[in-house]
């Protein structure tokens, strides 16, 4: 396999084994069904007699389909596009539409350059007849149409128009989210093609595509779909801006879990390739550093150590293991205790690591939780509300308590962010450790209030005494 870290992505990604990907596709539901449909015999004469198609359309399709004139699309491209688009527009019977779509897909698969036959058609908006078919009830029609659209969009230099592109990518995203979708591999294949094109990547981001990919990956899909969707993330990360944004969607923790559970070498390889891009591609070195720290936090070093001991024969895997090991180890050396803490909080995977229990840490860093618009405090409060992990909840309660103990205005800020209410709610949590830490945090919130009140009263008393002394002196 070609080294997957060459810089020339436009040449690189297509060489990542279209044959291999198509071999996988050959066993997909779509391809099995397509091979059955190819055996059908369509009575084109009946469509002519009922005047649903013209004599020209009839003659062309019969010569192509039944008389074996396979070079007709090249000899007469204009007629080819017109005929197929007419057939798709005028025929409504599902099994005939299925057959026409398989014919179109075969024509394109035989020669990629044939996409221009359809893209240069005089039929007005060439996308519309295909996009309409995505709304059909028949699932095979929908997904074979989606496959054809991907080829037309990716194999022609002229990009798909924005509104049509938005509609198509939204449709693919919604198909990913469908429960028990038999055609999910076909959807993944379309995205693998589309996201190789840089201009289509931001359109996918705009339809909430990246968070959809990651939410599905987090839900533990089968390894084939896992591979396809991580491949999509990989091609997305060749864009430096998207590589910088990726962990905003919690990509690193989700991919670290996949790496830890992976038993398939190709899944391991593609996850490592994404991790490498998340370090190499961002132009902002601070983001690359944050990604390294996040990987350390998610125990990626442990997985790299296991892979190192296994010594895979796959050169790409071992190159990536060496690269990641070096970069992650270096990031650990540079890490301040606050960096460690911030990364742990952002990862959402709180545990009783040493910084939490260090009084010195809280004395020196409590005020820093207010940085970047109180980002870390907001994350803690979010975890108190959303997390189902008792360890995360217990640690978050502890941290809120330590913050208010060491930062004078902490109680007020935590109340404003809704943290006090969340901690009080956890007083009745089923886990005794969560209840205990919530109780301690509530006590710290209250004690802090009393200390503050006591200081205020003391200050007022001193002010009054000073005022009285001044009046006596004047008299």
Automatic annotation (TrEMBL):
Residue ranges of every copy of the ATPase V1 complex subunit H C-terminal domain listed in the record: 335-450
Pfam families reported in the protein's UniProt record: V-ATPase_H_C, V-ATPase_H_N
Keywords: Hydrogen ion transport, Ion transport, Transport
UniProt GO cellular component terms: lysosomal membrane; vacuolar proton-transporting V-type ATPase, V1 domain
Oligomeric form and interacting partners: V-ATPase is a heteromultimeric enzyme made up of two complexes: the ATP-hydrolytic V1 complex and the proton translocation V0 complex.
PANTHER family documented for this protein: V-TYPE PROTON ATPASE SUBUNIT H (PTHR10698:SF0)
Family statement: Belongs to the V-ATPase H subunit family.
Function: Subunit of the V1 complex of vacuolar(H+)-ATPase (V-ATPase), a multisubunit enzyme composed of a peripheral complex (V1) that hydrolyzes ATP and a membrane integral complex (V0) that translocates protons. V-ATPase is responsible for acidifying and maintaining the pH of intracellular compartments and in some cell types, is targeted to the plasma membrane, where it is responsible for acidifying the extracellular environment. Subunit H is essential for V-ATPase activity, but not for the assembly of the complex.
Name of this chain's protein: V-type proton ATPase subunit H
Gene source species: Euphydryas editha (Edith's checkerspot)
